[in-house]
Amino acid sequence: MPENTDIPSETNARLTDDFRGYAALLRQIKQRVSLAQQRAIYAANEELLHMYWDIGEILQQSQQADGWGKKTLQRLSVDLGNDYPEIKGFSVRNMQCMMQFFEEYNQELTMIKKASCEITQPLAAQLGKHNFTLPVKHLDWTHNLILMQQVKDMHARYWYMMQSITSHWSKRYLQEAIKLDYYGKHGALANNFTETLPVPEANEVKSLLKDPYIFDMLTFTDQYNERDVEIGLVRHVEKFLVEMGAGFAFMGRQYHIEVSGDDYYIDMLMYNTFLHRYLVIELKDTEFKPEYIGKLNFYCSAVDDVLCREGDNRTIGLLLCKTKDRIKAEYALRDIQKPIGISDYELGQALPKNFRGSLPTIEEIEKGLEQN
Questions:
Q1: Which helix (H) or strand (E) holds 185?
Q2: In terms of Cα–Cα distance, which of 178, 40, 168, 50 is closest to 102?
Q3: How far apart are CA 90 and CA 79, in angstroms?
Q4: Which of 174, 219, 189, 143 lies closest to 330 in space, CA to CA?
Q5: Sequence-distant (≥ 6) Cβ neighbours of residue 151 within 8 angstroms
Q6: Per-residue model confidence as pLDDT tens digits over 172-205
Q7: Could you tell me if 301 and 260 are in contact, meaning their C-beta atoms sit under 8 angstroms apart?
Q8: Dihedral angle at the C-alpha atoms of 276, 280, 285, 288, nearest 10 degrees?
Q9: Contact at 8 Å (CB) between 244 and 283?
Q10: CA 300 from chain center: how many Å?
Q11: Distances (CA, A) of 162 to 141, 183, 204, 299, 324
């Protein structure tokens, strides 16, 4: 008889458990190694920025004292390149950028100390011995160069910094965002955040919400209502979350909430893990009307009382309309106690029916590919 080579079931189970235990152990160690690598990258980047800051300060002070010109930078570039061949970054252009880096953020520091810039004031307590603000240290040199050269307004620059950090923008995405004036679009948001939230929280919320929202994944050739848009956004929830921005989790559409024995249904409910607060979204297929604010204010109060737990911040409301009159929107928000923003939204450009009908379907395209 052939020898029985079957592994007993209890042995097989033990081997499976051992394998799972080892796999979990390996995963834990790899996660810790990955964390160490990330910290090393951040530390190296921060030290590089410290060095560029200090060199920029040395160069600026020396130039102010001795009045030298570009030839001195050319000579320094050659000598430093020869002495430190393993270190890149001592080109004339990059040393000029180091001087700009120190000069511009040193001016910002002076502005903070003198008093008043609403956006940068919360960072005053976080300034280190190298005298540049915290967000700068979390961006690599290329991101900082793009911001210094393409964004001159300090408020806008700070906003792009925070978006690049929290949303992990690549340098190409950052350049595109600046080109499309993302900051200007966010600045158009009608809101009462400054009146209803502490300044740091108000700035955080303002930096996260925008106006308009572009839902180009949705196209309608016929008439549509807000329910059609809601359903479309849920079907394309991943793209919807990308458009909403960093940290948002989708909690539900027509989210049921009970108040004093009556049922209410919120158009869309989200939660932001960075801000630790709910976002109530009411969607309208018309232009803004002041009466919309009362209902949204009610929903925000209900979510604060029914859903919020310890550690959650105040719920914010977002009203999405086809269009809005900014003066009417500001009047409607003036005495509202809940933090609410009002934004427009835009849908994708739908193709005319006769033109759309002339295009091949996906099935026709696939069939054609198979024949070739």
A1: helix 182-187
A2: 50
A3: 9
A4: 189
A5: 157, 160, 178, 183
A6: 989 988 998 877 766 578 899 989 999 888 888 8
A7: no
A8: -90
A9: no
A10: 23
A11: 15, 11, 9, 29, 28
Cα separation of the two ends of the chain: 57
With tokens 């700070």, the residue in question is: 158
User: Are 105 and 133 within 8 A, CB to CB?
Assistant: yes
| DSSP symbol at 139 | S
Whole-number Å distance between alpha carbons of 20 and 15: 9
Give every CB contact of residue 158 below 8 A, 6+ residues apart in sequence. Answer: 119, 120, 133, 135
Using an 8 Å Cβ cutoff, are 120 and 111 in contact? yes
Q: Alpha carbon 128 to chain centroid distance?
A: 25
Q: In angstroms, rounded to a whole number, what is the distance separating the alpha carbons of residues 131 and 159?
A: 19
- Taking only the tens place, the pLDDT of each residue in 58-90 is 999 999 998 888 899 999 999 999 999 988 889
- The structure tokens listed for 40 are 């090393």
Q: Are 324 and 287 in contact (CB under 8 A)?
A: yes
pTM of the model: 0.49
User: Which residues are CB-contacts of 333 (< 8 A; sequence separation ≥ 6)?
Assistant: 190, 191, 192, 293, 340, 342
Length of the chain: 372
